[in-house]
Amino acid sequence: MKKSQTRFGFTLVELLVVIAIIGVLVGLLLPAVQAAREAARRMSCSNNFKQLGLGVHNYHAAYNQFPTQKSGTGMYPVATWDLSNTTGNCEELSALVGLMPFIEAQALWEQISNPNAPNKDGSTGVWPAMGPTPDNGTANGNYGPWNEELPFLRCPSDPGTGLPAAGRTNYAVCLGDSPISSTDGPTTSTLNKKNSNAGQMARANCRGAFVPRQKAKFRDILDGLANTIIMGEIATDLGDRDTRTNPRYGMTSLELALNPSICGEATYVDAGRPQFWATTATLINANSIGRGFRWADGNPVYTGMMTISPPNTPACAGSEGMYDGSATLVAADTLDQNYSLVPPGSRHQGGCHVLMGDGAVKFITDSIEAGSQNLSTVARIHTTANGLTAGSQSQYGLWGKLGTKASKEVIDEEF
Q1: Burial category of 195 from C-beta neighbours within 10 Å (exposed 0-12, middle 13-18, buried 19 and up)
Q2: Which residues form the DUF1559 domain (predicted)?
């Protein structure tokens, strides 16, 4: 009688089939895993923004105003606010600095608000209360608090880290829909707030929730808190000529204001990689200048965004300084202090987060209706309205309407 034989193991064909099936499954599952990870990072980013929104509301409840974008101490002994200073911060601090006690960073706030904060290496420092200018100069670049990498200011989807940045941020305040007056607000180069022309320029040009060096309140947002963006997400620079994070310069501020489309002209963009500058573009990045590079710096390159160009479109900076309340340009000490056109952006697919005045966090797609980029912004310079007349409805569609606080535009579609 023939005995049956028990077979152990696999044949070569069976083994190959199993390996092929596993390979197919891995190929199918890997993109799903990556997508799930990005979804988690995006959710974490949104949660950070919600905490910032709560901080803004709690700050307003305590002081009856927003934290001021570009605030702080005086400019002695330097002559103008754009110069590096170790004995005062020249009212160069971002609104994020004032938010520190309201977003669970009380310990850092106590270092900043008291003298002699530590150096960035942890050693004992000799610094004024509220710190030096946050410009990462030879001396004041050693100020510890300005170099802190704060996790609640970072989006997990953004891989930027380390030098040449100081402390990075992925969240910026909304400055409205005009580049003019975006660095000085209603002041002159000597921080004179009684110059009537500077004040009139800021009143016309600064139409966002935050105005540089000027108090802002919820009551100022006449279009409704739920209809007005107060902050937006930005991507930080990785040193790779990204059009969103390394602003191009070479045009004047007035040219940017009259025709924002010149910022991303095809001549200056890499035809094979449209999100990167071509070698023909002259870029602002020098030393430690780049989008989101300094969370404590109130200049638009670092902590500002505008609702002119849609999210994730090119950023640009004017090639000169500020108008100083006059018709004549005053050169700024460094390029990051020039008027800029800075859209929001992110490392998420297809758009970025924004924070509305009522604390809601929305995801705005890159395809949001933004009017024509060939149309001018408001651009009052000295006593002349060079672009759109002050008080006019934004010419940048739904996107522009969301960035202005008191233009009485009707938001007639879902976003």
Answers
A1: middle
A2: 34-370
**pTM of the full predicted structure?**
0.87
Greatest CA separation found in the chain? 114
List the beta bridge partners of residue 229. 356
Residues 6+ apart with CB under 8 A from 47: none
Half-sphere exposure of 101 (CA within 13 A, CB side): 12
Task: Please provide the distance, in angstroms rounded to a whole number, between the alpha carbons at the two ends of the chain.
Answer: 81
Q: Where does residue 332 fall: left (phi above 0), alpha (psi -120 to 50 degrees), or beta otherwise?
A: beta
The DSSP output letter for 7 is P
Q: Which amino acid is at 338?
A: N
Amino acid type, 19: I
For 357-383, how does the pLDDT look when each residue is reduced to its tens digit (9 = 90+)?
998 999 999 888 888 899 988 888 888
Instruction: Let me know: does 67 contact 95? Beta carbons within 8 Å.
Output: yes
313 and 351 Cβ atoms separated by less than 8 Å: no
Contacts of 22 (CB under 8 A, 6+ apart): none
Contact by Cβ (8 Å): 318, 252: yes
What are 163-198's pLDDT values in tens digits? 887 889 999 999 999 999 999 989 988 998 888 888
pLDDT in tens, 222-261: 988 889 999 999 999 888 888 998 999 888 888 898 999 9
